[in-house]
Amino acid sequence: MNSIKKENRIYAFIPQEKTANFYQCRFNRDSLAGFTLLETIISISISLIVIIATGVLLYTGNRIWFNTYNSVHKPFKQEALSTMIAFGQVGRKSNRLNYKVYNVSGETFTPAAPVSLIDTEVVSGDAVEFRYWDVPLDSTDSHNLLDPDKTATAYALFYLSGNVLKVDYGPYPPGGVPNGGGTRNTTGITTVVLATNAKKIGTGKAFSHTVVNNVGSGCVRINVSLSDPNNTDSVNVMTATTMRNIWPR
Fold first, then answer.
1. What is the mean pLDDT of residues 98-126?
2. Mapping DSSP to helix (H, G, I), strand (E, B) and coil, where does residue 129 land?
3. What was the pLDDT predicted at 208?
4. Considering the domain boundaries, does residue 55 fall inside one?
5. How many domains does one find in the chain?
6. What secondary structure letter does DSSP report for 83?
7. What is the per-residue pLDDT for 203?
8. pLDDT tens-digit readout, 78-90
């Protein structure tokens, strides 16, 4: 194939018929190849616009995803989630007839009592002790769980220690606090820190429940605020758990 250059374009001569001494060629204007300089510049400009727009879109999407991920997975928000899970799981398996809400003064825990013994009242406190069974009920009742005097085998005491929200796990008896109140049990227990930088919300207390005729309803609420030590971000943990077990009946 031979070609000539005319008016800044390349035109092709395509062989059509072979003779003894030469090719008879026909000038084919339909096989134009190449672009003018102006067409090339326009094509490059359009391509650059598309590439830049795609890059901006990818960068913006990545930044939004990164900010969202950091917002959800900040340590204090993870602590809020862990607190709600632990509080809910322990509460649901606890004995409705054997739990205590306490007021705390220094190192002394005192049971929070209602003002009236015959009305419905919301009673608040600084700590709550759930009592539950941490062993299974088998066919032979090897743990004597059907004994009406055995109202729990373990306890979990949730409380604020300064700005730290903690929970003590231990056997019952003796439980977290002596009957009638006193200092917290520190023997044979496991203490778990649920959250740092925790505090009560407003002037209220961290835990509350409804009492009817001096008997707890078995639904305990937690109201604490967790904050980020690096800025002013905070999240309120406001949830409740209902005790499903009643023993003895």
1. 92
2. strand
3. 96
4. no
5. 2
6. H
7. 86
8. 999 999 999 999 9
Selection from 89, 83, 74, 85 nearest residue 195 by Cα: 83
- Does residue 129 sit within a domain? yes
Total count of residues recorded for the chain: 249
Examine the domain organization and report whether 125 and 19 are in the same domain. no
- Indicate whether 22 and 132 sit together in one domain: no
Question: For residue 212, which of 116, 140, 82 has the smallest C-alpha distance?
Answer: 116
Residues 244 and 22: their CA atoms lie apart, in Å, by 103
CA distance 236 to 144: 41
Six token digits for residue 48: 């650059």
Give the pLDDT confidence score for residue 118 in this predicted structure: 78
Domain range for 167 is 75-242
Residues 238, 149: one domain? yes
Mean pLDDT of the chain: 87
- Please indicate, yes or no, if residue 226 is contained in any of the structural domains: yes
Average pLDDT over residues 89-112: 96
